[in-house]
Structures are given as C-alpha cells and as structure tokens.
Amino acid sequence: MEQVNAIELKHVTKRFGEVTANDNVSLTLKKGEILSILGENGSGKTTLMNMLSGIYFPDEGEIRINGNAVTIRSPKDSFSLGIGMIHQHFKLINILTAAENIILGLPGEKKIKMPQVVEEINALTRKYGFDLNPMQKIYDMSVSQKQTVEIIKVLYRGADILILDEPTAVLTPHETTKLFQVLKNMKEDGKSIIIITHKLNEVLELSDRISVLRKGTYINTVETKDATVESLTEMMVGEKVSLDIKRTKPTNQKKRIEVCNINCRNKEGLPVLTDASFIAYSGEILGVAGISGSGQKELLESIAGLQKLESGQIFYHTPEETIEDLTKLSADVIKEKGVRLAFVPEDRLGMGLVGSMDLTDNMMIRSYKDGRSFLVDRKKPRKLASKIVEQLKVVTPKLETPVRRLSGGNVQKVLVGREIALNPTVLMVAYPVRGLDINSSYTIYNLLNEEKKKGHAVICVIEDLDVLLELCDRILVLNSGKITGVVDARSTNKEELGLLMTGTGEEKHKDE
Amino acid sequence: MDLLLTFIQKAIGQGIAILFGATGEIVTEKSGNLNLGIPGIMYMGGISGLMGAFFYEKNVANPIPLIGLFISFLMTFIVSALGGFIYSFLTITLRANQNVVGLALTTFGVGFGNFFGGSISKLAGGVGQISVKTTAAAFRASVPVLNKIPIIGDLLFSYGFLTYLAIIISLSMTYFLKHTRKGLNLRAVGEDPATADAAGINVTRYKYSATVMGAAIAGLGGLYFVMEYYGGTWSNNGFGDRGWLAIALVILALWNPNNAIWGSFLFGGLYILYIYLPGLTRATQELCKMLPYLVTIVVLIISSKRNKHESQPPSSLGKAYFREER
Amino acid sequence: GCGSSATKESSSDTIQTQSSESASGDTQDDASAIKVGIMYIGDENEGYTESHMKGIQEMKTALGLTDEQVIEKTNIPEDESAYDAAVDLADQGCNIIFANSFGQESYMMQAAEEFPEVQFAHATGYQAASSGLSNMHNYFTSIYEARFVTGVVAGLKLNELIENGTITAEQAKIGYVGAFPYAEVVSGYTSFYLGAKSVCPTATMEVQYTNSWADMSGEAEVASQLIANGAKLISQHADTTGAPSACEQAGVPNVGYNVDMTSVAPDSALTSAYNNWAPYYTYAVKSVIDGTKMDVNWCQGFAEGAVGITALNEKVVAAGSAEKVAQVEAAIKDGSLHVFDTTTFTIGGKSLEDLIAEGGDYAKYADYVSDGYFHESELASSPSFDLRIDGITELTE
Amino acid sequence: MSKDIVLLNKEPFIRMVKRDSITTVKAWFIRMIAVILALIVAALVIVAITKQNPIEVYLGMIDGAVGSKRRLWVTIREILAMLCIAVGLTPAFKMKFWNIGAEGQILMGGTAAAAFMIYFSDKLPSGILLIVIIIVSSIAGLIWGIIPAFFKAYFNTNETLFTLMLNYVAMQIVTFCIVFWENPTGSNTVGIINSATKAGWFPSLFGNVYGLNVVLVLLLTTAIAIYMKYSKHGYEISVVGESEFTAEYAGINVKKVILRTMMVSGAICGFAGSLIVSGASHTISTSTAGGRGFTAIIVAWMAKFNPIAMILVSALLIFMQQGSVQIATQFGLNENASDIITGIIIFFLIGCEFFINYQVELRKKSKEGK
Ligand SMILES: Nc1ncnc2c1ncn2[C@@H]1O[C@H](COP(=O)(O)OP(=O)(O)OP(=O)(O)O)[C@@H](O)[C@H]1O
Ligand SMILES: Nc1ncnc2c1ncn2[C@@H]1O[C@H](COP(=O)(O)OP(=O)(O)OP(=O)(O)O)[C@@H](O)[C@H]1O
Ligand SMILES: [Mg+2]
Ligand SMILES: [Mg+2]
Fold first, then answer.
1. A404: buried, middle or exposed (CB in 10 Å: 19+, 13-18, 0-12)?
2. Which of C71, C84, C136, C397 is the best substitution to test chain D (most D C-beta atoms within 10 A)?
3. What is the pTM of this model?
4. Distance, CA of A417 to CA of A421 (rounded, Å)
5. What ipTM was assigned to the predicted interfaces of this complex?
6. Which residues cross the membrane (chain B) (predicted)?
7. Which residues of C touch B129 (CB under 8 A)?
8. Pocket residues for ligand 2 (CB within 6 Å)?
9. pLDDT at residue D337 is higher than 60
10. Beta bridge partners of residue A221, listed in sequence order
C-alpha cells in the first residue's frame, strides 16, 4: 500500500476582496515529517494554514487529510481531523489560567474537575520536557510561557498534525532551541509538522523539506539537504539578493544621548530599570541586547518621553553642541523643543500606528502638529505615504487601505519609513525585523546603516545576536533592568553576550 | 421596628426586578454582547406575562392559579427571549452596531409594553381595571408556615417565588460561569471570540444562547414587577428606568451575579430611602432621590482605582465578530 | 332653550373661523358644523385622562356630534408641544379647544391670543379670569365634595375597626398619598379628612407626597411606609393603582381616586371619588353651538353630577355606609352641609375666622370665608383651600 | 491513528464574504430596499394589531409631520434639536468615550437657561441676556460633561455608567429647582417663563420664530463637521479613540484631549438645552430632554458620525415621531404603536448595513471529487 500523505492541498485559492492571498496552491505534508513553509511577508503562508485550521474557507481547491477529501468549515472540524495550529498571534485568553485555556472548547463533564485537568497537563509537560504552571494566569506569563501553553493546548487535544505559524518570532535563541527539541521529540512520536518561519538557519536546522510561496503562488518544494540560505532566498524573492550587511566605520562621533542613572518601575511597582547609564553617539549604531523583558522597552521609552522616571537624568546633545535636558519631559514637549527623535516601538499597531487609519493619516501621527493652522494639512503626508510605498516597496492595494489590513512586514516598512522621514538625529528602533522576511529584514538593516552614515545616532533593540554582531558598532547588554555591559561589536562574540545577558558575566564597559 | 422591617422588605422588593435584569445582562455581556435593549425587553417581558394571565383568566370561568402562573411565566420567557433573539440576529448575524440595536430595542420594547398595556386596559374596561388577581395571588404567595415566624418570617419568607428564583438564578449563574465547561467557554467567547473560535467553540451559538437566555432572565424582572410587585396590573412607563439601573448594576457588580444580589438590595433601598427618612422637605426629598445614582458613582470611582484584570468588562464587549476579519 | 339672537351671534363667529365654507346661520347646521378639539396630558391608559375621555364621549352622544367633529390629541406634554397642539387644533378649524392639564395653561393662553374667535377651555387652571382674554376659560369639578363623602365611608370603616377592637380609637390614623403640596391636593385631603372626622372624631391623618401625579411604584412605596408608620386606612390623590395594590397586599382598607380600585384591591378597596367631566363638556360645547356666553370659571359638584363616588365595595365597607353616604350626598346637594364648615376644624387650635380677624398671613382668606364656611371653588374654578388644619400631619416638610 | 477520521464533505450553505468596496449607488439602493421592506413589515404589524389600512396610516403620518406649514416648522424645530445633540455627541463617540449622558447635559443646559431667564430677565438687556443664556447653558453642559471625563482621564472610571448616572442626578436637580421655581407653589410646573416680556427667548429671524434655531444649528453642524474631519483636534480625537498608547507616542496629551473633547461635547449638548428651553418651550421640566439624548445616540451611529448624514437620519426619526402624533389622533392608534414602528424601521436600516459591508454567497452547485 502506498504511503498516504498527512495533508494534501490541491489547487487552493483564497481571495480577500481585491487581494488574492493564495493562488492555485498545491502542497503536500508527508506523514512524520517536518515541513517548512517559506515566503516573503504577505506571500500567503498564514492564509494557507488558516484554511487548514478552519479560520478561512477556501474559494477554490481541495483539501485531503490522510488521503480523504474533507471540508473544513470551522476550527472544530479541523480539530476533529487531528490538526492543531499554533497561530502567529497567540490565541489565548488573558484572564484565564493556562489550564483553562488548554481545555477551552473541549467536550467533557459539565463541571470542570480542575485537579484532574492539572494532573493531565503535568503529565504532558513531563513527557515533552516543558516547564509550566497550569494555574498561572496568561497575563502573568512571558511570551515563551505563552508559547508553551499554545503547544500544550494542541498536544492536549491529541493532534497528529501540527502547524506552527512563526513560533520563534518572539523567542530567544535559547527558547528556540528548546522548542525545536520538543518538535523533534514530537516527530519521533510520529506526528507531522508544518512550521512557518522567516529565519532560514532554523529552517535548515529543523525541517525535512521546504516549500516556498511567492506572492500567493506556490513555487517549489526542496529537500532541506539540498538547500542553502542563498538558494532559498532566491526562490522566495525570485531573484538573487545579497545578504550581507555593509558595516562602515563610525565617523565623526559626538555625544548625542546621555542617560544618567535612570530608574523606573512598572505598573506593579517592580523595578524595570536600575541605575542605567550610557551614551549614544552620532554616526554609530548602538545595539541593545538582553533576554526579553530585561528593560529594553522601558529604556527606549524613557528616552522617548513615554516612561515615568523615578530618578536619573537624560540629556540630548544637539548637533549645535548645546545640551537639552529631556528628563521627565513628555513626548510632545520633547518634540516642541525641536529635538528630532524618531522611535519605532515594539508594538507596531498598538503604539506606532493606528490600525484603522489609512496610510496618509498614519503618516501624520508624528507631524500633524506642524504649522500654526488649526486645521491639519494632509497634502504632505499623502505625498510621503506614496513615496514610502514606492521606495520601500510596500504591498498595499491603495493608499486608503487601513494599515491593519497589511501584512506584518509591510506594516513595519510603513512605520520605519515614516520615522526615518522625520530626518531624526536620533533613531530608536525596537525589534525592527520581528516577523519580517529575510529580504525585508535586509532592507531595514540597510536603512539603519544609511541613517548611521548620515551621522545620526541609531539605537536598536534586536534579539538575534548574529545580526547584532554584524550590524552594530557597540552593543549594550541588559539583564533584569541593569546594564551589564557595553561592548564593541567587532571584538565580542555570542558567548560573551550570552553571559552578560544572563548576568553571569562580569560587568564590562569597553569604551570607558 | 415596623418601619425598618417594612423598609428592608420593600428594598428587597424594589431590588429583585433590577437583579433579574442585571443577571440577564451579565450573562449577555459575558458573551461580548452589550445589550442596551434590556430596559425594553423587561417591558416586553412584563406585559406579555400579564397578557398571558389576563386572557387566561378572562376566558376561563374558574382560573386555576398555578396554570395562570405557568402561562404568564411562559409568555414572559418566550417574548423576552424573542426580544433577545431580535438583538442577536441583528448584532451577531448581521453584525449591526450593538449600541444602536440596543437603544432601538429599548424604544421598541417600551412602546410594545405600553401599547399592549393600553390595549388590554381597554379590554378590561379602563385604567386600572386589568385584573389577574388569581394569577397575581399565586405570584404573591409567600412561603407557607415559615412566613408566620415573627420578624424572620417577614424578613426572609414573605416574598413570592420569583424573589427566591432571582437569587437562585444569580447564584447558579455565578456557579455556571466559574465552574462549568460551558461557562468557561462563554467567558472565552466574551473575552476574545477569535481565540474561542480557534479553540473550536461555536462562537455564534454561544453568543446567541447567552443573549437570548439573558434576555429571558431579564424579562422575568418585568414579570416580577407586574405580578408580584404590582399585584397584576399595568401602568404605562410604570417600570420606570429600572432597566437602566440593571445595566448600571452589572458594572457595579463587576460582572459577578453574586455581587449583583447585594447590589440590587442596595439600589432598592436607596431608591425608596427618601420615603423613610424623616424630616425631609420636598426639595431635600428630591436631593435624596439622587442617592442611588450618587452612590453608584462613588462606588464606581473607588473601584476604578483598583485595576484588577478580573474586574474588567469582557474585552470584546460591544464588538461584532467576523472570523475572516483581521 | 336659547334665544335666536344669541344663535345669530354664534353663527357669525363660526363663519369667521370657517371662512367661506358655510354661510348658513341655521342652528341645526351649527351643531353639525362645529368642531371640538381636545388635548390630553395622557391617554386612555392613564386614569385622569381616561375620565376626561369618557366625558368627551358622553358629550358627543348627548349633542349628537360625529367622530369627525371631535379631534382628540393624546400625550401632550406641558411644554411647547401644548402650544403646537392647540394651534394645530385651531388650524384644523376647531371652534372650541379643551386642555386637561395644569401646565398646559400658559400655552393655551398663547394660542388663545392668536385665535381670538376660538374658545379655549382649560381644566385645573386659574388664569382665565385675569388673562384679559375673553375666549379663555377655566373649569374644574368640586371633587372635594366627593372626597368628603369618601371620607365618611373611611370614617365609618375606622369606627368599625375600633368597635371590633382591631384598633383603639387613638390608633385611628389615616395615611394619605398625595401628589404635590398644591391647593388641589390640600383641598382634597382636607375634605377627605373632614369627612372621616365627621363620623370618627378621633381620626388623625398623615400625608406623604410622591412628587408626581402618576408614579405607580412611588405611590405603592409611600402607602407601604404610611402603613408601617401606623396608618390603618389609606387614601390618595395620585393617579395610579399603586397605593391600593400595596394596601391589598398589606390588608389595609383604602379609598381610591378616579377609578374603581376593586380590580386591583378586591378585598380592601372601599370606594373611590371620581370626576365626571361630561356635564362640563356638554355645557361648554353646547354654549358654543348656541352662541351663548361660557363661564370663565366653571366648577360643579354633586348637584350637577360632576363628581361622584364609585360603587361601595360591600365586602369591605362598614355596615350602614350606603345609607350614610346617601344622607351626606343629599345634604351636600341641598346646601345644608358645607364641606369646609369652619366649626369643624381648627388651625393651630384657633378657628379660621379668628385667624382672619387677627390679620397677617391669614388675611388673604377673608374673601373666601363667610356664612360659617370656606367658599371653595366659588371665586375661581380651581381649588383654593390650602390651609393645613389640626389633625393632619404632612410627613414631607 | 487513535481518532476516527471524520469525513466532512458538505460545504457551508451560505457564506459571508467581506466586501472590499461598494458603489454609492448600490449602497443607497440597498438602503432603499431596506426602507421599503421596513415599511411593509410595519404595515403588516399595523394591520395585525390595529386593523387599520396601513397606507392611510402612512399618509396620516406624512400629514402629521409636514401637512401644514406650522407642522412642518414644528418638525424642523425638533429635527434641529435632535441634530444638535447628535452633533454634540459625535466628538465624544469618535474618541470612543461612551457618553450616554447627553440627556443630563441637555437638562443642565436647560436648567441654566431657565435660571437666567428667571433671575436676570429684568437685570440684563434682552440681546445680552440671550447671549449670556447660550453661554451659561453651554457651560452647564460642559461641566456635566467634564466631570465624567475627569474621572475617566485620571482614574479610568467607566464613563458609560458614570454619564448614565449623571442623567438621573441632573433629573433630580431639575426637580429640585422646580420646587423653587414652580408657579403656583406645589404645582410642579414652572409655566412659560417671561411670557409677557419674552426676555431670554430666541427672537424671530427672517420672520420665523425658529429662524435662529436653524441658523445656529446648521452653523454648529458645519463647524463640527469641519472640526472632526479637518482640524488637528479632530485628528487627535480619532487617534485617542483608536489607541491611547499611540496617542501618547504621537505626543498627544491624552488627558487633555479627553477633557477638551468632553467639554466640546457637553457644551454642545448644554447648548441644545438652551435651544429647547429658550428657543422652543420657554419652560423647564424633567421632560425637557425627553429621551432625545438617547435617540441622538442612534442618530449619530446610524449616520456613522457624519454630521451631514445626521441631518437625514434625524429627519427620518423625527418625521416618524411627529407623524405618530397625527396617527394617534386620526386613528385612535395608541401613540406607542409608533415606537414599535420606529423600532422596526431602525432594525431594518441597521440590519441592511450588513449587506453593504458583506456579500452573501450561496453554496456552489457541485464540487469535483466525491
Ligand atoms: N483577513 C484578511 N483580510 C484581508 N486581507 C488579508 C486578510 N488576511 C490576509 N490578507 C492579505 O493576504 C495577503 C497574504 O497574507 P498572509 O497573512 O497570508 O501572509 P503571510 O505570508 O503570512 O505574511 P507574514 O510573513 O507577514 O506573516 C496579504 O496581502 C494580506 O494583506
Ligand atoms: N503589532 C505588532 N508588533 C510586533 N510584531 C508584530 C505586530 N504585528 C505583527 N507583528 C509580527 O509581524 C509578523 C507578520 O504579521 P502579519 O500581520 O502578517 O500577521 P498575519 O500573518 O497576517 O496573521 P493573521 O493572518 O493570523 O492575522 C508576525 O510574525 C508578528 O509577530
Ligand atoms: Mg503570516
Ligand atoms: Mg501576514
């Protein structure tokens, strides 16, 4: 008997209004393999998977699971076919506990027997080597803990086919390694897995085969052993692209931002930044490293005037060599002082952009106050919007499309484009390439480098240590709110950074 | 002593209608639907129960109390559920704006109540002539034997069965939401329908059931008012703004039906306090009537300072859900 | 019988309003050409308005008017809508327009000024005489007469309770649910009290206001409070069945207003005082038809059949009530009994005459008091007795 | 495999797909159909519950609303009041500040207007008095709006409930004032204020008593339309409404915007109070707002916060309301029937928006395979 495939997609098409997200895509997942799906942002990976998980319904095409043609009308149908999907954005209910999230929607006795459920979950976590407190509330969890809940949720349901949509986008390298170990265990267990990720080294490390999508169409599937980063990129983009960052020597370095002994606390009153001091110079890229939640966000937000400081001071050295005290000034006051500070926050649609507004209106967020007039001027922002769409190759049906509809990569391009358009003397970016495909990521790196060349100070938080080492001039390392070191990116290595990040390394300040 | 006893009794009496409304609205809101039509639905529930009993007593020579009670209960249940269904169809299936549908439903429901109230008034031979005394007596019947105990009897056992039902419903709703699978699923739907959907919960079905059920429960508040409180008669707009207070109570109770119980008694008490406070002038009486609202505001401000995750409204409250929307 | 000259006058009036439509001066035609407008504060679901509607209906039958000749507007609030409604009725060719709520009076006057050829009649108001408008009229009933009689029924009931030993003579306290501390209400509860006291001398009364004309739940709550406060019998001047309904539950006898309360209080309602507006409406419309001059102030009671009490609830009333009622009614009709007989009450222990003689605040009542009684509703149609007499306590200060 | 294989071969019978865009003509066509359907359903209801000829009932409504010049003007006056309130609510709702307290803001504005008419009629010349009245009533509404805004901004207090409760507080304040202003004592009616001098009344304009109402409300509507769409304030309101974090990031002082917007919103609703008191009723009572504050929410939402569309929507609702007065008179049809009909029409109108935003697809005939 011939071996049946776990999943077969045949000629599947899905449109959203004018956008064709998937165009006649055919794809196969063999039993017991790990298949990676690659594609640029907006190439339709999530859409394709969502048709398997019952979120979307295909316009055309056929789906076969274990050799049988099926119709998946809802997530429930999908579960009953043994498919479990871990979505790109966590699908967890914040106010519920892990255990409650895990048993959500499952049949069973009317009354919930919580101790029993907890026991079952603990059995699973033991089996696969997770670390999870089933009674913990989701809102108290870190991203990796949430990720764990998502995976256990799928396992608890007894899924045979697992789909993971960019599970590593928000994980640290260490966490990623752990996750991959789990996935390999599951494969050993006979489960079939599809994983979507933009990190090509992960793809090469983990998967058996790789399928590539481009602009909604299926390109090809290759055996992992035959693939390289370059070949995959070419398949994705459709042409050869160079994947190196041209780092130049910093020139004409002057103090730009000076942070002295700042302290701040989060909403729960716990310290998130303790006695942090550092200097950012013009004409350099200062990288910020640290495991997630070490105070990176607060550090940038403090400078941007979005974080309440308990103590400490922040100074801005103007190109004209005067000093502005930014301590305890709010964002609007900083702007009024004429300080050209650009900031790309971590939360793109929750902070950097307004999801329901179109590109033009999003362009105005930082500049609408310009001019004396009581009325806003929309001419300039509209021009800027079309310029960014053109220069950064933003994929959008039209300028009037709400940015919420764009894919993650395009959203990020819009945001970075706008901030750079401010012609800032200081550019701060948090996780600039999170969720971005490799091509877009390099576009962003190049933009940062250009800013640096213009003599601007660039501060960027990046979780990928390889990129940090390749892109930055100096790297500042945070560990639970303390700066454990500022090192020269050219002379340090991953191990050193890792030690500083976990706080086991000795404090290091190479530039002082 | 007598005064205090009567005051407590009447405060509870005033509170029960609000309690039904609040419990119904809590169940509804837990599914993410903000049903501002509850005030209207309570009118619809009240009048249909009354009409059921009225036509029964009118057409039967010797009406049997229990049958009258059953008919009116059923009528209320069906008609108010229907009100909830209209709301559900428009907001869940047609994804219309919840605020507009709710407010329009209130207009509709109050009109519905007053219209039919007037119509059966006419049939009965004029204002105040509607009489469903047999049925009303059944609704008003207090707990036998126990109600004879001095003080305790008055305080605890002098009410009709709807009063106890209101409390039982609230308690069991709290249990349902906290300890059952369906309750958990419902909460998930109200928090984040996309997540609930992805977990295989039939979001539409939960939203429909909770909203229709919630409306039916709220409608019982109308029935209580018309039958137990008024003794089976109708007065236009007689239910007043209690439906709105019920919605207010939901927030005050932090979406917990158990809290709504004491909250409704508090509201009830403050509602009639002006009658019991001695030495008030007409003007100060009017100021005293502000109390339920002012107290609500004060409690609201105090509780807003504690920003606990669990005491927030369901996060998807007021929003329509469309699976393919992003 | 109406003089023919008067008829002519009126017909010329009609011609003015209806312009070229009809030039006929014939009396017969006048009855069929006349148009009557009425605006009510409420509708048939509200007791007070319902009684006016009945009056209009009877007037229609009595004068043989067709449905088209009477335009009824319901639910007209006491604001600019009252004016809108009044002028709209005038625009539609009404020759006489009635309004039944106090707050509509100023708007009626506004309209009356604009339409001098249309007659405007307003119930419960007081400004017609002083308005300087010849087409503005006020009307009301001597409802205090009926209240006095219902007071007698209540007093007899109290006597029965005392005799039964259910209560002592000192406990004979009446609770009264009032709408507003307004002459109409004060006059009403005083007459009720005087009626009760005329048969049960130890009776006292407590009045609590609801601050609303129709607030079913408020009335029920006030009644409950009065009962808890020791009232053994409840009466009301408020428009709903709220109080009787609460009394029924508490088993306390009660006297209603406007409508028969036995439907909601079969085992506790004694009787109700009611208005009969038919005599006035018939009179007023007939005056317009006949072209005779209408009273600027019209107020009638038992004599004209403008007030009455509903059938006694034999289950509840004290024995002999019917006879006593008949006797008192007759006495009021023939003028041998005056409700506000100044010998039957005191104020602060003093008689009203003495107080008037003393001057001060009471001097203004001099015009009303003569021949040993207070001439209620004789100088103006609306009630004017607003004195707080001994034996009655207002719980609202 | 541990689990049974579930074979699902049925495609859903109907599916909904979000429309990308729809032509204006098509959208209005759908709305027209909705209105017609609504009228048909309402007609059935009329026949069922009243046994009246529905066509005549509708004709009666038209007659009642616009049948004479005077009726037309009454209808216009009511439309203006409704429009004014809906326009006032717009900034707040755009900011996602659920202000259901227009009722209270109107009452406070009305009370302020009445107070000045009563106490200052002989102290100020009438032109100045009128201006003062408009200003103080706006301030009164503003105060009633800024209280919940303050607590929202600084304590994140739920504004829905807060504003709702303030409605009742305002109601009690009015009753309280009436105890002092009523004439005669105990009557609970204030009567026409300054009926002789007309001090503080809106004067006639262009020979029409409601001329000034028209001018003021239309000016206000235009101003707010511009304010919301083209002004920096309007832009800030939209950003704050979408996300407070974004607003802070954009350098918007969120607290200030919340306060300022509710000041604008409250002030307009307060002004509506003077529009009703000084410009129409010349009295004050608890029914001065008369539920308009709630209906205006429906108006604002149905118009999708477009002030110009609000003119249409409020015209439609007021038309129904004024028409119903006539049908009550003409057919003895209880006025509450009109609430039922209005409800039905609103249900259809908001229901039809679905067909403008979504496309419904029926199951395709057959599919290849088994
Ligand atoms: N619900 C939706 N409504 C409208 N358009 C959508 C929707 N979902 C996806 N799209 C569009 O379909 C296209 C494919 O999106 P999809 O999310 O599948 O891309 P992706 O490959 O997952 O991208 P990324 O790498 O950024 O996650 C994009 O252009 C996106 O804007
Ligand atoms: N607001 C945000 N902040 C940070 N990262 C984001 C944000 N939004 C999206 N991303 C990242 O961008 C990537 C692509 O997001 P995108 O919007 O394309 O999602 P999607 O594939 O369309 O998801 P779905 O279709 O499930 O909604 C994701 O990996 C996500 O982590
Ligand atoms: Mg994706
Ligand atoms: Mg995407």
1. middle
2. C84
3. 0.88
4. 6
5. 0.85
6. 37-56, 68-90, 156-177, 208-227, 260-277
7. 259-260, 263
8. A 41, 46, 87-89, 166, 169, 346-350, 407-408, 434-435; B 326
9. yes
10. A211
